[in-house]
Amino acid sequence: MSIHPSPPSSTPRFNPPRPLRDWERRILEVATAFPFVLGGASLRRQIPYTRVVGECTCGCLSVDLVTDPHPEDRVVDDKHGRHYEVYGTDADGMGISALLFEREGYLSQLEVLRNDGSPFTHQPDPRRFLDVGQDPAAREAREVLGLAGETEDQYDDAPLPVA
User: Fold this and answer.
1) Total domains, the chain
2) pTM to 2 decimals?
3) Which of 11, 64, 68, 162 counts the most CB atoms within 10 A of its CB?
């Protein structure tokens, strides 16, 4: 098992790592479906082997990840890491973003933030990152995920679970 990267010392660590929550897994699935994510299919195949080793306590929904290395699912030609950002709108209309980090070809971190810096009071429905009007990248990601016909009234912004 390899940790990519180690969580900051101020981040609560989980030992052993905890499983991804359903909405974390779904945000990873959505973020890796965008066409500009190099190796998105490989990163999506890593999700079942990904667990959380740390999480931020500031009110954002950011987590540090560990992925069991499966060489066949590693993003090739990546020695230094990359990050990608996808945008959406929260239930109250505030902009939100999800930043996906991969390092050495493996998922390493997911940051989910509100644009005004305020804490989340609920878990955002990952499909909100796919509802950005006529953005061709979001349209293609919806098709990759088989969500082309879903509409906003199907969102499920549930309260955050008590830690």
Assistant:
1) 1
2) 0.79
3) 64
